[in-house]
Amino acid sequence: MTTTPVRHGRWSEAITALNTRWHRLALYGFLFVVVAHWAEHIAQAIQIYALGWPVPQARGVLGLPFPWLVSSGWMHYGYAVVMLFGLVVLRHGFHGRSGRWWRIAMWIQVWHHFEHLLLLLQALTGSNILGKPAPTSIIQLLIPRVELHLVYNAIVFVPMVVAMVLHMRPKPAERALMSCSCALATAR
């Protein structure tokens, strides 16, 4: 009996490549995007807490020349999608302890994405939760938005970085499962 070989499309091939021969480069590119987003939030926090700007005028770096990015919700929603996409696609390269930490970051980002989708829908429809004057996320009912963004980014970033460190320093059993060159060389 012969079996028909499974045909992999370009999408499947791209995901495989991102988790094998391009995994290290993909992780560094992804980390660059994450750190750039952090820089936006840190700039906004500096504008508010160090420079004393009112919250509506403190729009980070990109929000100053392009205020519609901040007020429309598209910039943060776009980032939430990119972040979720990266965490989902690159998860296949992680194994053992690093895989566990990467999945923790991914599931937190699933919730973070949901909150940004909720904000975007409110901005697009003009109908805000509980009649609030501005789009409001669920957790924002408890924590102000600027601080909430810092918290969300931290609770996704920390397990992501733990996963990357463990991925670069795998135990022998984890190294045996790896199909990428991310592991640092071990001393002989």
Describe the structure.
This protein has 188 residues and is mostly helical. It has one domain. 63% of the residues lie in helices and 0% in strands. The chain is built from seven helices and no strands. The termini are far apart.
What is this entry, summarized?
About 65% of the residues lie in helices and about 0% in strands.
Helices and strands in order:
Elements: H1 10-18, H2 23-50, H3 67-72, H4 74-89, H5 96-125, H6 145-168, H7 172-177
Jot down its keywords.
188 residues; single chain; elongated; mainly alpha
What's the order of the H and E elements?
Answer: HHHHHHH
Radius of gyration: 20 Å
Separation of termini? 48 Å
Number of helices: 7
Please report the total strand number as a whole number: 0
